[in-house]
Amino acid sequence: MRRRHIPVLSTLALAVAAASCGGSTPEPANSQPATTRPVSTEWSLDFSGSPAAAFGTLDEADVLELVGATESAFITGESELSVEAGQYLTVRYAPTAEGSDRVQWAIPVGPADDLWLSYRFRVALDWEARRGGKLPGLASYPPTSGGANDSLHWSARMMWRPIDDDPTDPSPEAHLSLYAYHADNAGTGDFADLPLSAQIKPGTWHRVVQHIWMNTAPSSHDGGAEVWFDGAKLLERSDYRWSSEPATHAVGCLFFSTFYGGNSPDYAPRSTTFIDFDDFVVTAVPIDTNGS
């Protein structure tokens, strides 16, 4: 079914001062957040209705700047899979020499020492894993990525990885990994692979829940990460030193970052494909992890 663009709803809300980038635009540069937001309840976004917004809201003009200026992302209620009552965000992944276009928004939330994130995603029927790619996660604000690691800023994105690690295999079989930039790694991030049971199935909505907490002191390795996939807890670590200055670089943004890559042609999809995203929640209160 041919996709069509649907106007962005005026009730769509994200967060103040979100940064957008697409195409070959570099990943977000490090700069200090402009505001501090409470974390008493939650921030949510389902692309269909009026969200809770304890972390701040955007008006329609801000939303149009964020989504409308990004050619590879649009709000829709229609895909090759179905026409649904609700709307969701669709990201288009066109092959490039680096993998695919980057769609990245650093959306300020918090800051807080401990935050939860939940969202759903669905890959297209013609989707293939290739060598892997990025999915959203929590991070400092600003986040770090793209091989830039300064020990202060950090990120904890999800990443899909092929099960057989063979980029010539067109199979869509892939599993999830936590891809982390933290104070103790140099260059690119490192992987904490989830079990192979965390497989992505084309045409199926999957739910990711991520829980991140900061290290308690600059030299402490007691920061943590937990990940649930479709209701199953598949990762628990409590040995991260996320930042060398955790008091000023706490959990501070939803890092909406998604693309094929890596940074080479063997990451690229063979043809343009799509992933749908929906039902984002960021909260300081533990999330119900059951189900998808």
Task: Give a verbal description of the structure.
This protein has 292 residues and is mainly beta. The chain has one domain (19-24, 40-283): Jelly Rolls, CATH 2.60.120. 3% of the residues lie in helices and 41% in strands. The protein is built from one helix and 17 strands. It has one helix at residues 60-68; strands at 19-21, 42-45, 73-78, 83-93, 95-96, 99-100, 103-112, 114-123, 133-139, 155-162, 174-181, 190-193, 206-213, 223-229, 232-240, 251-260, 273-283. Strands 2, 3, 4, 8, 13, 14, 15 and 17 form an eight-stranded antiparallel sheet that branches. A seven-stranded antiparallel sheet has the order 1-7-16-9-10-11-12, covered by helices on one side. Strands 5-6 form a two-stranded antiparallel sheet. A hairpin with a 2-residue loop joins strand 5 (95-96) and strand 6 (99-100). The protein starts with 18 loop residues before the first strand and ends in a 9-residue tail after the last strand.
Strand-pairing-aware structural class: mainly beta
CATH topology name, in short, is Jelly Rolls
Q: What is the count of distinct domains?
A: 1
Sketch the topology as an H/E string, one letter per element. EEHEEEEEEEEEEEEEEE
Strand content: 35-45%
Gross morphology is globular
For the record, give the distance between the C-alpha atoms at the N and C termini, rounded to a whole number. Answer: 25 Å
Roughly what is the average pLDDT, rounded to an integer?
Answer: 77
Percentage of residues assigned to helices:
under 10%
Number of strands: 17
Q: What's the gyration radius in Å?
A: 18 Å
